[in-house]
Design a protein that fits this description.
single chain, 86% helix, mainly alpha
Length: 400
């Protein structure tokens, strides 16, 4: 009976709304015809009346929608069969059918409207909870796929770093060009072997988990048969434990990702430090070679300074002798003067000859220094002054 009453009230509200919609254009035409003769107050009243009609139509439309939703949720196969049998009895011969006009039908009371609203609210809350559960499941699936993608991406980055460290750096080295193909094949075979071992391990773990799952199912069936099933409190405790375990897993996954990022950063820093170490070792080798050359030059310069000190001492002794002779000097005889003059002329000739020899030696020294500089440039060593080159070649000596 309540269902029939709801259907009748729905039909009645639709007819009243159609009547109101039919009255709106008539009122609009009347307002248009009497627009010139009525005052502003009449126009305001008409506007208020139109707004009130629109508001009442909106409320009626909301009530109709709510009633339709309530009827669609409550109307099941049993009620349909009951209404069908009722209609058959009403339309069967021998019985008079009562025709209910819309004017004589009753409207819903406030209690019935409240029941309808509560029913619709319950249905909407159920739909909302169902949609929430579905969205949470979908969100969990997406989170799981994202975590799987992150783990896969981290593994790919790790494999790339290992490949660069083990293969690419060895290929870049010129000494390992002959062994590069064999090393790559060996590296790929090792990785395939590691993956096969991991697959076997996961397969064994999966079989163990399946066996454990079967045991739990058997145990659950036995508990159900014995009447020792889980209660609502047990389910709540399991939910709380599940939430705690999920939080712990999330924290462990976060720590694992942080450790992976730290490991990647440390590998990058290590590679940069290795490059810097190679550059510094090369520079240290160049500096060591330069230091060795400088030390050789320093030893030779020290030997030359010692030799120059000895020659200076000899010159000082000779100068003392000459000063002593000059102090004891007496005018020589004429014949002695002539002899000294002849010896002086001969010495001047010897000096000119030695100057020519010195010029020739200097020319040869220049050629030797040029060739020496070319050899040093070709060897990658620094240029040294001409005097040190002459010392190395043995052409220049302080004693001569």
């Amino acid at each position: 009976m309540n269902l029939c009453l709801l259907i009748n009230t729905l039909y009645l509200t639709k007819q009243t709304r159609a009547r109101n919609h039919g009255n709106e254009p008539q009122q609009a035409t009347m307002a248009a015809t009497t627009e010139n003769c009525k005052t502003d107050s009449d126009q305001n009243q008409l506007v208020k009346l139109v707004k009130d009609l629109k508001r009442s139509n909106a409320t009626l439309q909301a009530e109709i929608d709510m009633c339709e939703r309530y009827i669609s949720s409550r109307l099941d196969l049993q009620t349909q069969s009951e209404t069908a049998s009722h209609m058959e009895r009403a339309t069967s011969p021998g019985r008079k059918t009562k025709v209910h006009t819309p004017e004589r039908q009753q409207l819903l009371t406030l209690e019935q409207k409240c029941d309808v609203a509560q029913g619709v609210l319950k249905q909407m809350t159920k739909d909302l909870n169902r949609a929430k559960d579905h969205s949470e499941r979908e969100l969990d699936k997406y989170k799981a796929t994202l975590e799987e993608a992150d783990i896969h991406l981290a593994e790919i980055k790790k494999e790339c770093c290992q490949f660069d460290r083990d293969i690419c750096k060895a290929v870049q080295d010129k000494k390992c060009l002959t062994m590069s193909a064999e090393k790559v094949i060996r590296y790929i075979e090792d990785k395939i072997r590691v993956k096969e071992n991991l697959i076997e391990k996961l397969h064994r773990k999966n079989t163990a988990l399946l066996a454990y799952k079967k045991k739990l199912k058997v145990k659950l069936k036995q508990q159900e048969e014995m009447g020792e099933g889980l209660t609502a409190l047990d389910f709540e405790q399991l939910k709380l434990e599940n939430i705690k375990i999920r939080k712990q897993l999330d924290e462990q996954n976060r720590e694992h990702s942080d450790l992976k990022l730290l490991a990647g950063n440390s590998l990058q820093v290590l590679s940069c430090n290795k490059k810097k170490l190679q550059i510094l070792t090369h520079e240290s080798a160049v500096l060591n070679s330069d230091i060795a050359l400088r030390m050789k030059l320093l030893v030779k310069i020290e030997e030359d300074t010692k030799q120059a000190e000895e020659e200076r001492n000899k010159a000082e002794t000779l100068n003392r002798k000459l000063m002593g002779q000059l102090a004891d000097y007496h005018v020589p005889h004429v014949l002695q003067y002539i002899k000294v003059k002849e010896s002086h002329s001969q010495l001047q000739k010897c000096v000119k000859e030695w100057e020519r020899k010195v010029e020739i030696a200097e020319m040869s020294l220049k050629t030797y220094t040029k060739s020496w500089d070319k050899l040093r440039i070709a060897a990658g060593a620094r240029l040294v002054p001409a005097q040190h080159a002459a010392m190395d070649s043995g052409l220049y000596d302080f004693g001569h």
